[in-house]
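Lab notebook page, bench 4
Experiment: in silico fold of construct C2
Operator: M.H.
Input chain length: 217 residues
Purpose: comparison with the prior construct
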Amino acid sequence: MRIHREGLVPITVTGSLFLLNLLLYSFYIHFSVYIAISVFLFLIFAWALRFFRIPMRFSHKVENGVIAPADGIIVSIEKDVENEYFKDERIKISIFMSIFNVHVNFFPIDGTVEYVGYHPGKYHVANLPKASNDNEHNSVVVRKDETHVVLFRQIAGFLARRIVCNIKEGDIANQGEEMGMIRFGSRVDVFVPLDAQVNVQLGMPVRTQKTVLAYFA
């Protein structure tokens, strides 16, 4: 397991607070208060370590498949008009990430990064339908050829206040390779062609680099 660089500051701060509290043992009047604060600070530190982890997984190439770009739960599978780039109807598969999921994002297919578009916005709860367009979001289009093309959208949630995207237009995308992350509770929408075969169901947990969301026709 590795730690994402975005987590270095939060982990250092929470770890330092925990250690500082241990050193201030003699200043506490009540031992129970000391234990309670120590446990609380340790849990926050442990959560920060878990949140910013990059899991060591073996990513298998799925040439005709779209793998999940994020860990989470499938909260929506529906036809929707994608107005930002394609400007036509697509199948939208939405993955909601809780604060306990891995929040590092990965490329769903091989290809070339054709478009990257960041949009400031609101911070509705990420599993609400309106979050897809109203919330702060970052859209990425990866194209392998005329039939293998995907738009996936990093969406900030109620707690998420930072979208990280480490790529630019023209970059080579490798399926299962890291491309960014979203800090705290958030969501990723994946737009695939209408003739794609969806491979997941509502409420299904998915794992990035592992779960195939859909297969191209």
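Observations: The chain has two domains: 2-54, 65-215. The first strand starts at residue 2 and ends at 3.
Next step: discuss at group meeting.
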